[in-house]
Amino acid sequence: MNPYRSLPARSFWRSAVAGADLSTLGDLWTPAFPLDPDASVLTAGSCFARHLGPALLDHGWNWHEVELPPPGLTGAERAARHYGTFSFRTGNIYTAAGLRQWLTWALDGVDAPDEVWHTDGRWFDPYRPAVEPDGHDSVEATMAARAVTLAAIRDGIAGAGCLIFTLGLTEAWWDRATGTVFPVCPGTVRGTFDPDRHVFRNATVAEVHADLSAAVALLRAVNPGLTVLLTVSPVPLTATATGEHALAATTYSKSVLRAAAGQLAQEHAHVDYFPSYELITGVPSRGVFFAPNLRTVTPEGVAYVMRHFFAALDGRPAGLPASAAAGAPTDRSAAGSATAPAGTRDGGDLLCDDAVLDYYRAG
């Protein structure tokens, strides 16, 4: 007799993975705590996280979009200004350091730097340079818009039941002068790169864990009943500043994020990890949920992730019924022929700030 004799089938590679296909793969996630569909659920994080809010709404959940668009905007204008993307108009938050920074400004009484970027007579917020694509007409308007978002974060956190945060990157550019982190490298989406001021850092597991721990502590200080569900984006790096091959750099980044998120979930009963990364990039999917650019996750992939999410929360048995897996492509050509997700052009994702880095590729 040994401990392995009593383990369930999900614990063994042959039965849980090699012997499964997309229609039977299941039981990947056992929720650490219940989620109330009627309670306010907040979403933030990398560009992959923008899929979560609409999916929650479609399933009848109370996804809370705290910052609502002003009347009169078209659908395209709302999307361009990041309304309906996340619960707050922070733009994409790719790193744990970025999440900690926004929460420190909103919840801990720390003032954000008053620096703005000026381009062609318009002013932009360095910490969300793509949220207002046409910029603001004054420094004061830029600061006022940021103040609205910080107030929305405070109000949203205070009344929320759960925050779902999707980690995207370990690589980031920092400001030596202010000690702050940018969502993208200055001089790409907006701003001007200063090699004496802007420094590149690639976070370690310990650093990501420390930032996540601090972020969760800030959240729970404001709302002791709040739970946090972490995920890791399956979207690869568009480009790496490490000097390594993009594939190796992506593996490092995702491995670090996965390890830090898993460690935090083991340490706290109010923190959990959902395996969206594994569902899309794992061996059983054979890459079918990526568009031809091998980066953008197809609508079928998003739907597949959300079906696993809701099945686990609803307490359904392991594995998906055939009807639930009917939309999953079975080969790469099927995935490549899928309709491109909203916000994409020529295989590139326009709602991912770092997608602009592809413009600088060689060749």
TrEMBL record:
Region annotation Disordered: where it falls in the sequence: 321-342
Database matches in Pfam families: GSCFA
Residues annotated as domain GSCFA: 41-309
Domain of life: Bacteria
Family annotation (InterPro entries): GSCFA
This protein's name: GSCFA family protein
